[in-house]
Amino acid sequence: MTICTIKTTPFSDQKPGTSGLRKSVPAFQQPHYLENFVQSIFDSLDGCEGATLVLGGDGRYYNREAIQIILKMAAANGIGCILVGCGGIFSTPAASCVIRQYNALGGIILSASHNPGGPNGDFGVKYNVSNGGPAPEKVTDAIYNRTKAITEYKILEAADINLDRPGSFKMGTMEVEVMDSVVPYVELMQTLFDFDKIKDLLSSGKFRMCMDSLHAVTGPYAHALFEKYLGAPVGTVQNGTPLEDFGGGHPDPNLVYAHDLVEVMFGDNAPDFGAASDGDGDRNMILGRNFFVTPSDSLAVLTANATLVPGYKDGLAGVARSMPTSEAPDRVAAKLGIDCYETPTGWKFFGNLLDAGKATLCGEESFGTGSNHIREKDGLWAVVFWLNILAVKGTSVEEIVRDHWQEYGRNFYSRHDYEEVPSDPANELMELLRSQLQNMPGKSYGNYEVAYSDDFSYTDPIDGSVSQKQGIRIGFTDGSRIIFRLSGTGTKGATLRLYVESYEPDASKHHVETQEALSPLIQLAEEIAHIKKFTGRDKPTVIT
Ligand code: G6P
Ligand code: ZN
Question: Which positions fall inside the Alpha-D-phosphohexomutase alpha/beta/alpha domain (predicted)?
Answer without folding.
Answer: 14-153, 184-287, 296-408
